Amino acid sequence: MLNLQPVTLAKHANLYALMLRIYPPAYQQLWVNQDCNWYINSQYNKDNLKEELQLAHSNYYFIQFNNLTIGILRLVHQPNKKTTKLHRLYLDQDYQGQGLGKKVMTLAITIAKQKLSKTIWLEAMDTQTQALQFYKKMGFIITEAYALDFDLIHPNLRGMYKMTKQL
């Protein structure tokens, strides 16, 4: 059974350990020195989590499947623009290809609609072909392309897409 459980400050250690486990296999090849721990430290440290949890109009969840935590989902709602940003969706590679991503995305879309959003959008790296295929299958279209201005990522891997879906 798949469900979402809120990320809380008290669960910081769980979040951090999860991201140390699931982020590197999918993304360490992006980084010039192959070390993505600094990124995990910057995004998933306790202070950053506290700030993200205090942000109004956002939801942050652990993705659980059969009582195991297998990923995270973070949504940021912009009520004045009637849009929701899918800010983070990470799923353990061991659980990909089982239809769980589709179920999580369906839950994200349901939450966005409950927040009265008319669109949901995300940013994806243009080299992450599996993710791009998944998002396209879920009805997202590429609406913008740009490159990250970030020296720690290999220059040929800095391409990004903004993808949008009408709700």
TrEMBL record:
Source species, domain of life: Bacteria
Annotated CDD domains: NAT_SF (cd04301)
Alphabetical list of SUPFAM superfamilies matching this protein: Acyl-CoA N-acyltransferases (Nat)
Record domain N-acetyltransferase: where: 18-167
Pfam family, any one: Acetyltransf_1
Name of the molecule in the record: GNAT family N-acetyltransferase
